[in-house]
Design goal:
Elements (H helix, E strand, L loop, with lengths): L1 E6 L8 H15 L3 E8 L6 E6 L2 E7 L1 E3 L2 E4 L1 H8 L4 E6 L4 H9 L4 E6 L6 H21 L2 E4 L2 H6 L2 H4 L4 E3 L21 E6 L8 H10 L5 E6 L5 H11 L4 E5 L3 H10 L2 E4 L8 H8 L3 E5 L4 H5 L4 E3 L5 H13 L1 H18 L2 H16 L1
Parallel strand pairs: 1-2, 1-7, 2-4, 7-8, 8-9, 9-10, 11-12, 11-14, 12-13, 14-15, 15-16
Antiparallel strand pairs: 3-4, 5-6
Helix pairs in contact: 1-14, 2-3, 3-4, 7-8, 7-12, 10-13
Length: 364
């Protein structure tokens, strides 16, 4: 069975969608499938480049990107039209590669789409235009539609029209093979972590307001990631002189794993989320999540952490954190719950088997 995974970007670009596609692709290859990745690269000077990345054949196509969204690529569209059979699996509803996969679909090609939706206020307004123009094309052409969170069906009414094609399969991650370590829950200073894009809508300003009211001898925060708000974040840190916050930008996968192991609490105070890969990974390492109740966060979290109403009240977040600081047994209990929930629901092996079932069903 030949499978083409189509996504806006690919590793080493470190977005949540791209990270999941990389994991999915590598696991499918281990399971014996023939998988190739088609992705766009805005900085590519040639129309098309083929690479081998960690044993995966990756085709990169030049594209036009707008503020790191969109990724319109005529060269990708032409390449997809040359696919005459097999399965095309496109990721990222709000990016043009999924639309191009739908437009290029041949009569003997099966199309699977995984939406990976986020729901910022601007995004929801854009969907009102995008859905009737392009969403109908994508969902009509798709043989199977996968949502990574039930929140997606709630937020995109158009999906209800195609309910017979829709399956819910959450994001899957590699479960870390590490022993549970509760020592980090008993440190004099609790280490907290944010991992994600550095943009205003991810609640970066809320994180800084929170850290300005917390005792710097009791709490520290490490911020990991890159994005359009990085300069403003650096400027704010210089201006506010927060000794309990460090911004380290993008890091390697190994360095990120070490940060997960050493941190006790995961903060995500964003305006929107679909299914956050970083939140899921943090839970798998036993970090206790304190997150805003937006998008798919509640479905990921369950009772393993703390949901905060958005817009975020940092005083309420502060109250939760001080309660955890005083009650370390409670912190450990939630840590164990988070790890168990991630292992039970989001193990990539379980997710892979569900996608394989879809592929085989479409091939029969």
């Amino acid at each position: 069975m030949k499978i083409i995974q189509v996504c806006p970007r690919y590793y080493p670009y470190a977005g949540g969608v791209e990270k999941f596609v990389k994991t999915l692709t590598e696991e499918l290859i281990r399971a014996g499938f023939e998988v190739t990745v088609f992705a766009t690269e805005p900085k590519l000077k040639k129309p098309h480049v083929k690479k081998l990345i960690d044993g995966v054949e990756v085709h990169l196509f030049n594209s036009y990107a707008f503020s790191e969204i969109g990724y319109l690529s005529p060269t990708l569209l032409r390449a997809l039209k040359e696919i005459k059979d097999g399965i095309i699996h496109a990721h990222g509803y709000r990016s043009f590669p999924m639309l191009e996969a739908a437009l290029a679909k041949g009569k003997d090609v099966k199309l699977v789409v995984t939406t990976h939706l986020g729901f910022s206020k601007v995004g929801e307004l854009a969907y009102k235009i995008y859905n009737p123009l392009f969403g109908n094309i994508i969902f009509s052409k798709a043989d199977k539609i996968v949502v990574v969170s039930p929140a997606e069906v709630e937020k995109i009414p158009l999906l209800r029209k195609f309910r017979h094609k829709v399956s819910y399969i959450p994001i899957g991650i590699q479960i870390p093979n590490t022993e549970f370590n509760d020592a980090r829950c008993f440190e004099d200073k609790l280490s907290m972590l944010y991992v994600g894009r550095i943009e205003k809508r991810k609640g970066i300003d809320s994180l800084l307001r929170l850290m300005s009211i917390l005792d710097e001898d009791k709490f520290s925060l490490t911020i990991v990631g890159g994005g359009p708000y990085a300069k403003q974040l650096k400027d704010a840190l210089n201006r506010l002189k927060l000794n309990n916050v460090r911004f380290i930008g993008k890091v390697s996968e190994r360095s990120l794993q070490e940060l997960y192991k050493k941190s006790a609490i995961f903060l995500l105070l964003s305006e929107y989320e679909g299914h956050s890969v970083a939140l899921t990974e943090a839970m798998a390492y036993g970090l206790v999540p304190v997150v805003t109740d937006v998008g798919g966060n509640s479905y990921v979290l369950g009772d393993a952490g703390f949901l905060i109403e958005h817009p975020c009240d940092v005083d309420k977040v502060s109250s939760i954190l001080y309660d955890l600081y005083r009650n370390r047994k409670k912190l450990v209990s939630r840590s164990i719950k988070a790890r168990i929930r991630a292992q039970k629901l989001f193990n990539i092996n379980k997710i892979i088997s569900r996608y394989i079932s879809i592929y085989k069903e479409l091939q029969n």
